[in-house]
Amino acid sequence: MRNSFIVSAAMCAALVGCSSGASKGVTVSASAASAVGTAPRTGAKSIDAGNGISLDRLRLVVRRFEIEGSPACAPATPASSGGSSGTGGMGRSMDGSDDTSGDGSDCEVEKGPLLVDLSGADLAGGVHPVAAIDVPSGTYQEVKFQIHAIDATQAGTSAALGEMAAAGASILVDGTMDGKTFQFKSAIEVAQKREGTIVVDPLTGANVTLDVDASGWFKAADGSKLDPSDAAAAPAIEANIRSSIRVVHDDDHDGKDDEGGDHQGSGQDLRAAR
Questions:
Q1: What is the pLDDT of residue 84?
Q2: Which of 40, 54, 114, 126 is the most interior residue, by most CB within 10 Å?
């Protein structure tokens, strides 16, 4: 059975200074479910990863979330460090490029770092808030995200992000294996990109889902156990993590892409300029 945790970005209304109208911003949420599109699992407080492994807490650092499109923005400004509320800025993309057209035809809105932190009843399903992002209403062509470890400066005043920075981890998994507790730590760097039209309506907004299926992280190709405490198994586990990640345009919150976008970059490190 498929277990996943999902980061949803409900894109709404206008960014102050970028377009007119009241701003509702972006609601970033996280959800865990037994399968995409199914109801929450009553009483569930962990994810069964098979082979005697149970996942009790999932933490993932999204260092940068970016949406790019045609709404006109104010002059490009660099993103600034923001701790628990993350950074916010316009005009610089995850691959380090800038909007050099000079005509304001492209709008790039960024936020990060953000922490996805799911445990207990959150793992049974449902939607749980993570952060809010201001995004202009209009039509967008590209969404990107980057999973990446952060340092103490980037963590800012957030104790939760500070813990991830101190661990040097982009992903921390707490669980049990054969009844014994473990923590799997990884500084994996992964970026994902979806190309395809996303309309951010000023009244209803839009939704983007970052879907990460954690149920197969600790399974080899033949279904056998990948021991999270075995350093030799880490490359295979990280390969599973990379292959489990996708981003979709998901206004109806069913985990499926609404119109079939072009998904790129799974397992790649689309590095941003530091």
A1: 39
A2: 114
